[in-house]
């Protein structure tokens, strides 16, 4: 998967575009675009994997960045889940293997920091279906009630 020509930005994790103050600075290198292959079938998870590896792999299907995954990305994810499972089941945890798995996870943009460095932002629709928005509304209502305001 190659979001920006295969390289991510070095240094600290950049802010999301809507949180940046300066907009006059160049946005970095141009994005190289190439036609994608056919929408790949997601290889099934191995039932014998360690539960943590199985949950991680299953989470990829539900993740927004998966829309960019090609067949080779799913093959990489399958391999990483297998390596993760073997490491977790081995009885002798390998820090070196963990580092390799984490590096592969970064390549698949599985963390917010990795996505920001690759300049990929996932957005969710906000509104009534967003539990965080509902929690904010509930919190504001409780503040109003505590302050004695009835004009909601």
Write up what this structure looks like:
By secondary structure, the protein is mostly helical. 44% of the residues lie in helices and 0% in strands. It contains 5 helices and no strands. α1 runs antiparallel to α2 and α2 runs antiparallel to α3 (95-107). 12% of the residues are buried. Residues 1-7 have low confidence and may be disordered.
Keywords for this structure?
single chain, 152 residues, mainly alpha, 5 helices, 44% helix, extended, disordered N terminus
Can you describe this structure in just a few lines?
By secondary structure, the protein is mainly alpha-helical.
Distance between the amino and carboxyl termini: 48 Å
Largest sheet: none
* Molecular shape: extended
Overall helicity? 40-55%
Number of strands: 0
- Helix and strand content put the structural class at mainly alpha
Sheet-strand content, in percent, reads under 5%
Helices and strands, in N-to-C order? HHHHH
Radius of gyration: 20 Å
**Number of helices, where a helix is a run of at least 4 consecutive DSSP H or I residues:** 5
Low-confidence stretches: 1-7
Mean pLDDT: 78
